[in-house]
Amino acid sequence: MEAPTGQRTVGAGHSYYTGAGRRIGCFWAVLLLLALAVLLLAGVMHVDVRLLMPQLGDQVDGPPVTNVMFLKTHKTASSTVLNILFRFAETHNLSAALPAGGRFHLGYPWLFLARYVEGAEQGGPERRFNIMCNHLRFNPPEVQKVMPNDTFYFSILRNPVFQLESSFVYYKSHVPAFRNVTSLDAFLASPWAYYNQSLGLSNAYARNSMWFDLGFDNDAPPKEDYVRARLLDVERRFQLLLIAEHFDESMVLLRRLLRWRLDDVVAFRLNARSRHSVTSLSPAGQERAKHWCALDWRLYQHFNRTFWARLRAELSPRRLRSEVARLRERRRELAALCLQDSEPKNKSQITDFRLRPYQSGRADIMGYNLKPGLDNQTLQTCQRMVMPELQYMAHLYTLQFPDKPPKNIAFLEA
Ligand SMILES: Nc1ncnc2c1ncn2[C@@H]1O[C@H](COP(=O)(O)OS(=O)(=O)O)[C@@H](OP(=O)(O)O)[C@H]1O
Predict the structure, then answer these.
(1) Which protein residue's CA is at the shortest distance from atom 19 of ligand 1?
(2) Distance from C-alpha of 242 to C-alpha of 251, rounded to nearest angstrom
(3) How far is the centre of ligand 1, averaged over its atoms, from the C-alpha of 318 (Å)?
(4) If you measure from the C-alpha of residue 183 to the centroid of ligand 1, how many angstroms do you get, rounded to a whole number?
(5) Which keywords label this protein (predicted)?
(6) Counting beta carbons within 10 angstroms of the beta carbon of residue 381, is it exposed (0 to 12), middle (13 to 18) or buried (19 or more)?
(7) Could you give the C-alpha distances from 60 to 22, 255, 317, 374, in angstroms and in order?
(8) pLDDT of residue 295
(9) Phi, psi angle pair for 140, to nearest 5°
């Protein structure tokens, strides 16, 4: 006898669903086993799982830090950091403390004053900004006038031997102490023949320039008590000192402390010299540079130590390795997406003047050409990543102060 249609349907349906239920159960069991196997394999092969599931690694606890002051020291990879901060300001609609009027820095080499910031004196004495990162000579009470109380302060240091070599080539014709000497080795062999202490500020790039940028006396004798007291000052004022030689590890640490996303801290190397404008110092010259810049040498040694101690406190070695690997991988992806030939170009090869960095002295400062044919959104992302310091500052200035005359960067066209 044939069962009524409805019963048969229900019966058939029931057995169908029972079979399907079994299949679904199997599916989840297999998936669970697979996941366990991957985790086991990752453990055995010392692979960080976040490398396999990148979206997991981009999770951060709590809101991002948005009040940030970066002391932009000279010739220390600071333009690359500035690019990161300007991008963050622009994409998060944050205000930046930019140089007033037609200026390109915040009063450097004079000690910073709040009135060097555009708009600091408008809207009453309480006007505060989110991001501050243009060159200035650090002067905490004045910086505090334009930055909120909960600002995160950080800076970056570089081995003074290489920092001095970079300065020498870049500021060769600008700094009196460097003007009349053929090489840095010759300068370091008898610095007092070229360095006139009474010229003060104009020679700041020639000796202990990071110490000077921090607001201290770059000609002070490196006496133990004095050095220790100033290092303590820096520790009190800054939450973090990064190290240019370990730039990627620095970005991992910075991102963690600021609770930013990975893409916020991925950057291309900016303001780098082409290989033919880098000179090498003899081993004796290197030792003399450490002696000549003894204050910077102490500064660098001290904060190189604290940097690694901080990294160890924040991340296990394996986690650090995997985060650095992820950062590099993402940089490679973005280079392939944005850059012509995925690499930097020297000044004569850069076709768009808006992307050509400011050139100084004998240095050939490299930049980038973008790939042709990028869609609008990708183009915007890529342009931001390769935009040199002066152009980016002028761009933000126009966005922030549309009624003011724009910064005149026509000289970059030459
Ligand atoms: N990501 C990264 N890692 C390591 N080093 C880097 C990085 N980005 C820039 N650089 C090097 O930093 C030098 C430029 O420093 P600044 O941008 O601070 O110079 S400036 O004071 O703003 O003119 C310049 O050094 P030299 O090439 O020796 O002159 C750059 O090569």
Answers:
(1) 75
(2) 8
(3) 28
(4) 20
(5) Glycoprotein, Golgi apparatus, Membrane, Signal-anchor, Transferase, Transmembrane, Transmembrane helix
(6) middle
(7) 38, 9, 19, 30
(8) 98
(9) -50, -50
Q: For ligand 1, atom 10, name the residue with the nearest CA.
A: 77
Q: Is the pLDDT of residue 50 over 70?
A: no
Q: Is the CB of 77 under 6 A from ligand 1?
A: yes
Count of Cβ atoms closer than 10 Å to residue 126 Cβ:
6
In the prediction, which pLDDT does 17 show? 43
Among 251, 406, 238, 228, smallest CA distance to 323 is for: 251
Percent of the chain, pLDDT > 90?
A: 79
CA distance 186 to 181: 7
Tens digits of residue pLDDT in 288-326: 999 999 999 999 999 999 999 999 999 999 999 999 999
State which of 137, 245, 271, 343 you would mutate to test the pocket of ligand 1, scoring each by most atoms of that ligand within 8 A of its C-beta.
271
Mean pLDDT over 180-202 rounds to 94
Indicate if the alpha-carbon torsion angle 141, 175, 271, 278 is positive or negative.
Answer: negative
* Backbone dihedral angles phi then psi of residue 58, each to the nearest 5 degrees: -95, 5
Question: Residue 180 gets which letter from DSSP?
Answer: T
Ligand 1: does its nearest atom lie under 6 Å from the Cβ of 74?
yes
**Please, what is the average pLDDT of the chain?**
89
- Ligand 1: which of 76, 251, 365, 387 to mutate, judged by most atoms within 8 Å of the beta carbon? 76
Interior angle at CA 157, CA 153 and CA 159, nearest 5: 170
**Does 268 contact ligand 1 (Cβ within 6 A)?**
no
In three-state secondary structure terms, 273 is strand
* pTM of the entire predicted model: 0.87
Q: How far apart are CA 224 and CA 154, in angstroms?
A: 24
Residue 14 predicted with pLDDT over 60: no
Residue minimizing CA distance to atom 17 of ligand 1: 79
Q: Give yes or no for residue 1 having a pLDDT over 60.
A: no
Tell me: cis bond preceding 109? Omega within 30 of 0 counts.
yes
d(CA 347, CA 357): 8
State the CB neighbour count (10 A cutoff) for residue 398.
13
